[in-house]
Design a protein that fits this description.
Blueprint (H helix, E strand, L loop, with lengths): L9 E4 L4 E7 L3 E8 L14 E8 L1 E7 L5 E7 L3 E3 L5 E4 L6 E8 L7 H6 L9
Antiparallel strand pairs: 1-2, 2-3, 3-9, 4-7, 4-9, 5-6, 5-8
């Protein structure tokens, strides 16, 4: 087991008002974000990395381009999961409160591993 403490993360306060703690690992990355009220992130996309957001607190406007390059918008709220994929996107905090979320970044293979993920737990009853 490895425990990576906040002091081991890379902290960045971005100019547009996003505060991020990056936990960069060998095969994945997790980062914790706080967006101040009124923050509009820069439009961007990823060529290789798949990004997934889990909203911990608050609500965000998720903006992205559809297949026809039309801008789309949806409100995402506490408990929602956003799979960004390689879509150009941005997030906007139009609320009056700080929004907190976690980002998971992976380089995926495209293989369906749901059965392995659902069933890869073995009880160590001899330790109880």
């Amino acid at each position: 087991m490895k425990i990576i403490t906040k002091s081991d993360s890379i902290h960045v306060d971005k100019s547009e008002g996003t505060s991020v703690d990056y936990y960069i690992r060998q095969e994945y990355e997790v980062h914790y974000n706080e967006l101040k009220p009124g923050v509009v992130q820069h439009w961007h996309h990823h060529q290789t990395i798949n990004e997934t957001l889990f909203i911990l607190e608050g609500s965000l406007e998720a903006w992205w381009l559809d297949e026809d390059n039309n801008k789309q918008k949806c409100m995402v709220n506490k408990g929602d999961l956003v799979e960004v994929e390689n879509t150009p996107h941005t997030f906007v905090n139009s609320s009056g409160k700080v929004v907190k979320f976690i980002v998971f970044r992976f380089v995926l293979t495209g293989e369906d591993k749901r059965e392995v993920i659902k069933n890869d737990k073995f009880l160590d009853t001899n330790l109880e």
